[in-house]
Write a structure and sequence with these properties.
The complex is a heterodimer of chains A (about 625) and B (about 500). With about 625 residues, chain A is mainly alpha-helical. Chain A is built from 26 helices and 2 strands. A two-stranded antiparallel sheet of chain A has the order 1-2. In chain A, helix 14 runs antiparallel to helix 15 and helix 15 runs antiparallel to helix 16. Chain B is mainly α and about 500 residues long. Chain B is globular and about 70 Å long. The chains are: A mainly alpha (about 625), B mainly alpha (about 500).
Chain lengths: ~625, ~500
């Protein structure tokens, strides 16, 4: 079989084996299949990677089969492996495999063990379709499929209605974005007659096709991206998605699936090169989401919610980069983020595991010495996301901030200021998390404190690997590597001299965040709570996540329910349609009653009617014959 | 055996079965079930063979039989397969054994009559699909009403009389209009040399005068629209579904509704092409209204059968949209969507029947957490739900996607000519994708997830018979979703022909 097809199909095989027979095969077998096939896929992806870099630079292409063809136009299921696809596939299978291994420890006691691994493998299959698909159609199949896997895994513990609801919310919110994706795809197909990425890129390489507004297509596809990548205004599903098992949050809702929107925009950079309006919109939404989510993260008290909002915020950075034409920088941050955010989520999982399910950081503290490996890896990842040099996050975030300021495609001081302020908040809330969880005095109750234990090697081993990658991953010059497929915007004239001062500033900002959090939370949350009590309204706004959920409920969900129930069902179906029908029936009954009086038995009346009838007939014949 | 003979076997086997049923000893229900199942299974085998043999690269009828029937009027017994009916015939034959097997335990009263009615409806539906003569078509079309009337009226639920009356009145109203139009049409035919024909292909070649077309089309279209049903002619459907026994619901959703959309394809548009073009914007508008209206109403139902009933209205809206789009993709998508909806809605109604047999209620509030109580049942239910949502890899996606992309493709040039409404319609149809996910997942959430709750416990999960039935449906759903190509090949020529008629000769070569 073709190498690319194999990469995609290996996890599918895992899904089928574990899904159909897993419950009968025992945990050991499930683990071997569940982890083994993703690892094989990773190895296959590595081979493809070396084939790509060792070759003449041409992408690897494979066509699996023709899905269907209409009027001579065929929709093909094909794969496309260029440098961008390679990076994505390696992240997905690499980080994916690590998280599978971690899960063998984390989910050990769960009765749905086989089902869990089946779903996780299913996710990898669809994610690989998404990043390796040659056409928007294949990408969309993966796009919807990862949504399905996400839905199933968020609601993995479906007996809890809140968790089932969270899964549904994720799926439906994503569908709103998908409507945009579909429309964008239709428009492209209409104008170009192809959905192949290479065809689209080629069509735009020579300049925007006249028949098509690049801005419109760009915005429609970006709407799809806001759904999957949880950007304003479709960000609301991601915090709720934390209802799923923590490794799922790490894999799907941090490292891979939520970056699909970033991938999509980067993949279609040819369109955005001709879409200044769409690009500007992306930059603004990106930076606004980054700031918005960071302010919320400062007030969250659930360890996973802090990380969820942080993910939304970091994704905002990536879109900021995309918006200013720094596609390589966006994917660079996607790549470093996959390491440190996966490490953070898995670390959080280790903490939750150690505390027998506790997620509230107000009831933690002092864990540094109790679970040292988890602490050490968590600290490294925290420093990485905060942008402390020379850890991975520093390089990628600095690159984004630099382009936000200096890009000749929409960069400017304002974007930089907001981005830098967000960086300050990021460092602050991440070190707040670190201090409240690990360093401040313990606030655990005795029972929990008594049971604290370090996680098994399957989990800590993975943490160590990810921490190492978070530390050194930034030394890979990814934007340079991606340059052949992802062009980078130029630097505005005369701005080079600002590069070093800005670099120093962003380091100082990270350190300021660290210092602020350290001083405020050294003794636990009490001091900060007193501070929050002085601005109760602001605090309520932030901790209530700006009440966007409530707004949507009042402005969208309820009106639609009301429209359906009151206007359409009661007024339309029952009153208007069935009402008229029943009215007609009653009328007919009444008329029949009156008509039946004709047959009253009076001979004279019969004669009269018969005579009238004959007359009418004769008259008709007279006229027509 | 020649294909034509085989096709006659497909059509007449149910009648043979029906005639054989009375010969069986009284009270032996098992024998009745076995015989019926054998008949429909044999029929499926024949139909499957014919589907495989059907050559999509040949225009016109295949496996044709043409015999004089009423010579004085030129009426013929004329049946055959073409690209428009071949998939629907296969679908009808495919659902037959599933319906019969699905009713093994559900129906205990008047078993013989029940199975006779199942065979009769199978016969009349296949006859409607296969007929190539307008008179023959009308006879079958009307005859379909009788067994369905009895299925609901005799084996139905509490309000079955109201439901059957509503169903019959709605349908009869449409039929009368169609009959009137039919008579008019025949009178205006060119009776050159006293020879006239009711054959479709003859009628296609002699369209009525443009002035009369609009009225004739309206009469036919109304009759078809009631069957589909298109909003606002739909209120008979939820009532009929709720009161019908499972077998009735499956047949209704699986095949009967498609008779309406098939009617548009086979008769409405090609018989009255100019009128069809005139009414296309109206059809598109009503199609999109049906998509959204049906979805919204599915959202607020508490009876599980009604949810699927309203979802059918929404899903058939996609079919109508595709048929009205005059784009090849849209038309092909509409044909696929018909088959897909037959499988998915048919499967869902079968599953509702299975849970009803166990718990005796259709009230959604009575259920919860079935994934815990009935894991196998829930797995199948989830798959069918996702197919209904139109998730890629399922048949639901193939149909929906092609309809949407086709209607968009057709709407954009109209928009560029200044008809913004066309684009608004095509865009709004995409909202149906969101609403569809909303009501189906809301249903699944209440039904399958949350705390385990059911009116009758302990529940027994699906038995082997039930698993086999559902496995067959799910296999078909995935097969079409993953690889619709072979089916599309069989229908392309016919779809192209239909497209040409709808576009009119004036419209030159238009892209797919």
């Amino acid at each position: 079989m073709d190498l690319l097809t194999a990469i995609v199909l290996l996890p599918l095989a895992g899904f089928l084996i574990n899904g159909l027979a897993g419950a009968r095969l025992g945990r050991g077998f499930v683990s071997i299949v569940g982890c083994g096939l993703p690892i094989l896929a990773f190895v296959a992806a590595l081979r493809a990677f070396f084939a790509l870099t060792g070759g003449d630079g041409a992408p690897l292409v494979a066509t699996a089969y023709t899905w269907g063809s209409v009027g001579g136009q065929s929709f093909e299921i094909g794969f496309w492996f260029d440098r961008l696809g390679a990076v994505m596939a390696l992240i997905v299978t690499g980080v994916g495999s690590l998280i599978h291994i971690y899960s063998t420890g984390y989910m050990k006691e769960d009765p749905g063990y086989a089902r869990y691994f089946a779903y996780l493998n299913l996710f990898l299959f669809f994610m690989l379709l998404l990043v390796l698909g040659r056409s928007l159609l294949v990408c969309f199949v993966g796009w919807e499929g990862v949504g399905l896997a996400s839905y199933l895994l968020i609601g993995f513990w479906f007996e809890d209605p809140a968790k089932a609801r969270a899964g549904k919310k994720a799926f439906i919110t994503n569908r709103v974005g998908d409507a945009g994706f579909l429309l964008g795809m239709f428009l492209l197909y209409h104008a170009l007659g192809t959905l192949n990425f290479d065809g689209v890129q080629a069509a735009f390489a020579a300049g925007a096709p006249a028949a098509l507004s690049a801005d419109l297509v760009g915005i429609l596809l970006f709407i799809g991206a806001t759904g999957k990548s949880a950007q304003i205004p479709l960000h609301v599903w991601l915090p709720d998605a934390m209802a799923g098992p923590t490794p799922v949050s790490a894999l799907i809702h941090a490292a891979t699936m939520v970056t699909a929107g970033v991938y999509l925009v980067a993949r279609l950079n040819g369109i955005y090169a001709h879409a200044p309006l769409a690009s500007e919109l992306i930059a603004v939404i990106g930076v606004a989401t980054a700031l918005f989510a960071a302010t919320i993260a400062v007030t969250q008290t659930d360890i996973k919610k802090v990380l969820a909002w942080s993910t939304i915020s970091q994704l905002g950075y990536m879109f900021l980069a995309l918006g200013v034409g720094a596609y390589g920088a966006a994917v660079f941050h996607l790549y470093t983020h996959a390491f440190f955010k996966a490490c953070l989520f898995l670390g959080a999982g280790s903490v939750i595991h150690a505390l027998s399910g506790e997620q509230d950081i107000r009831r933690m503290g002092g864990l540094a010495r109790r679970i040292p490996l988890t602490f050490a890896t968590f600290a490294i990842a925290t420093a990485a996301i905060a942008g402390i040099p020379p850890l991975a996050g520093f390089f990628s975030k600095d690159e984004i901030l630099w382009f936000a300021f200096a890009s000749d495609r929409g960069g400017g001081p304002l974007l930089w200021v907001v981005g830098a302020f967000t960086a300050l908040l990021t460092a602050f809330y991440m070190f707040r998390l670190l201090w409240l969880t690990f360093l401040s005095p313990s606030r655990m109750d005795e029972n929990t404190a008594h049971h604290v234990h370090e996680s098994p090697p399957a989990m800590t081993g993975v943490l160590l690997v990810l921490a190492a990658l978070s530390a050194v991953g930034g030394f890979v010059a990814l934007p340079h590597f991606l340059h052949p497929v992802l062009p980078m915007a130029g630097i505005g004239e005369g701005l080079e001299r600002y590069e070093t001062p800005l670099l120093v500033t962003s380091v100082l900002i990270a350190l300021a965040g660290l210092a602020g959090a350290a001083s405020l939370y050294a003794q636990g949350p009490a001091r900060a709570e007193r501070l929050a009590a002085r601005v109760p309204r602001l605090h309520r706004l932030l901790s209530g996540t700006y009440f966007v959920d409530e707004l949507y409920d009042a402005a969208v969900t309820r009106p639609i329910a009301w429209l359906s129930e009151v206007v359409l069902l009661r007024l339309g179906d029952r009153w208007l349609i069935d009402g008229s029908l029943h009215g007609l029936a009653a009328l007919a009954r009444g008329a029949a009653g009156r008509l039946s009086r004709v047959q009253g038995g009076g001979v004279q009346r019969y004669m009269l009617l018969a005579g009238l009838g004959i007359l009418v007939c004769v008259a008709w014949v007279w006229r027509h014959v | 055996m020649s294909d034509a003979l085989l096709l006659n076997a497909v059509l007449w086997l149910p009648v043979l079965g029906m005639l054989a049923l009375p010969l069986l000893p009284r009270g032996n229900d098992a024998a009745v079930r076995a015989l019926t199942l054998a008949v429909v299974a044999l029929e499926l085998a024949c139909a499957a063979w014919l589907l495989v043999r059907f050559d999509g690269s040949v225009a016109g009828l295949q496996a044709e039989t043409r015999l004089p029937w009423i010579r004085a009027w030129g009426v013929e017994y004329h049946i055959g397969l073409d690209g428009l009916n071949v998939l629907l015939v296969a679908l009808t034959a495919f659902l037959g054994p599933l319906v019969v097997a699905g009713a093994f335990s559900a129906v205990q009263r008047d078993v013989k009559l029940f199975h006779a009615m199942l065979l009769l409806i199978q016969f009349t539906m296949l006859g409607t699909l296969l007929a190539q003569d307008l008179f023959l078509f009308y006879v079958f079309w009307e005859a379909m009403l009788i067994p369905m009337f009895l299925l609901i009226g005799v084996w139905g639920g509490e309000r079955r009389i109201y439901a059957t009356l509503k169903f019959v009145l709605y349908t009869a109203f449409g039929s009368i209009l169609m009959l009137a139009a039919l008579i008019y049409l025949v009178y205006t035919l060119p009776w050159h040399g006293g020879s006239v024909s009711f054959a479709f292909e003859y009628l296609y070649r002699h369209p009525p005068a443009a002035a009369a077309q609009n009225w004739l089309f309206a009469a036919f279209a109304l009759s078809f629209a009631i069957k589909v049903p298109i909003v606002p002619l739909h209120t008979w459907l939820p009532d009929a579904h709720v009161e019908a026994p499972t077998a009735g619901s499956v047949i209704l959703a699986g095949v009967l509704l498609k008779m309406g959309t098939y009617g548009f394809m086979k008769l409405g548009v090609p018989l009255f092409p100019e009128a069809a073009r005139f009414f296309t914007p109206a059809m598109m508008t009503l199609a999109v209204i049906s998509i959204l209206y049906g979805a919204c109403l599915a959202l607020v139902q508490t009876d599980i059968k009604k949810i699927i009933a309203y979802s059918s209205i929404s899903h058939l809206g996609y079919v109508m949209l595709g048929l009205a789009s005059a784009s090849l993709l849209g038309i092909q998508g509409a044909i696929l969507q018909m088959v897909s909806h037959g499988l998915v809605a048919g499967g869902l109604f079968l599953m509702i029947g299975m849970i009803y047999e166990r718990c005796h209620t259709r009230d959604l509030a009575a259920y919860g957490g079935l994934a815990k109580l009935l894991p196998v049942y829930s797995l199948f239910f989830m798959i069918l739900t996702l197919a209904a949502v139109g998730l890629p890899t399922t048949s639901g996606f193939a149909g929906e996607f092609m309809v949407l992309i086709g209607s968009f493709d057709a709407a954009w040039p109209l928009y560029e000519q200044g008809h913004a409404a066309a684009l608004v319609l095509a865009g709004s149809a995409v909202l149906g994708v969101v609403l569809g996910a909303w009501y189906m997942l809301w249903f699944a959430e209440r039904f399958l997830f949350g705390a385990a709750r059911a009116p009758h416990q302990p529940l027994v999960d699906l038995g082997r018979r039930e698993r086999l039935i559902l496995a067959a449906i799910v296999a078909a759903v995935f097969a079409i979703g993953l690889y619709p190509g072979p089916l599309l090949e069989k229908t392309e020529l016919a779809a192209r022909q239909y497209q040409k008629v709808l576009q009119g000769s004036a419209a030159a070569e238009v892209r797919p």
